[in-house]
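check these tokens.
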Amino acid sequence: QITACICTYNLYDFVPAGVESLLKQSFTLDRYKITIVDKSPFSDQKEQFRKRFHNPPFISVIDAPINADDA
């Protein structure tokens, strides 16, 4: 079993393509998980993004804290 991690900071236009690419892999869904680590500040776009990926059990979205150096 593997876990693929996608890290993002306000790149919501690109993450869906990354998820779609992972879903096209030859692994069956019971053999891998996708973790999206989001360091973006709160916004309406972030909330829409979370709603889009909240349902599949093999995808998890983690809010990572924003460091002072990231701002």
Summary: Strands lie at 2-8, 32-38, 59-63. The mean pLDDT is 85. Helices lie at 15-23, 44-52. The two ends are 35 Å apart (CA to CA).
